[in-house]
Structure of Adenosylcobinamide-GDP ribazoletransferase:
Amino acid sequence: MQPSSVQNTVTQGQLLLLAISFLTRVPVPLNFTVTGAHLNQASRYFALVGLLLGVLLALLYSIFQLLLPPSISVLLMMAVGLLLTGAFHEDGWADVWDGFGGGWQVEQKLAIMKDSRLGTYGAAALFIILLVKFQSLLLLSESLLSVQSAIVIGQCLSRAVATSLIFSMDYVSADASAKVKPLAMHLSVTSLATLLLTAATLLVSLIAVGVLLWQTAFILIAVLLILRVIMIRWFKQQLAGYTGDCLGAAQQLSEVIIYLTLVSLL
């Protein structure tokens, strides 16, 4: 439920801080009691948080490569990214593969996904996606489209795609009362528009400064739209909806697909 009074009591700046607090380990002041309704509205800024993370990681990579080879610089940048986010999305990716691979019924899958232990499916999936991400960024370090541009695009657009799934799917849980913290379960048209505007502004800006070709941007959008349809069908087939882990998995898959698409266009 989303009370109409939320916007009157919490500013957009506070919602942005909440989005940063939810998606990262960066300490930010929150002088209000967080509710699911607040997080529903804060989700409009998830792509912006991804953009800020991407810019920070790009700057760190630029510093690393002044002293170190590209392979070490990419690895250190990825490590810092994991520290900044607390491996939040990677955890969801691993949990989804453990649940989908180890469970037969929806209830079994949800129970496995809630288990804090890492299984074989999750460990293998996590190893593969991190390796593919590393290799893709390493290849991009040798291209005209720099790692810095790729990481900013990947961090921002992947969160826009993952968050947009909330707009099109229902939240599912074996025990909704067991959640240890609020979860975004509703995305308004305004919030969806904010997500898309953030992603579009980034792409247009990169095209305007000559970093990104408009043809490349068009291909990226087309690929992500197709991927979004596939992920919705996948989650609905497995769970008849989404969980927080599904959104984390969607972010990771979208991010790595962005890098692979850029690599394929080299």
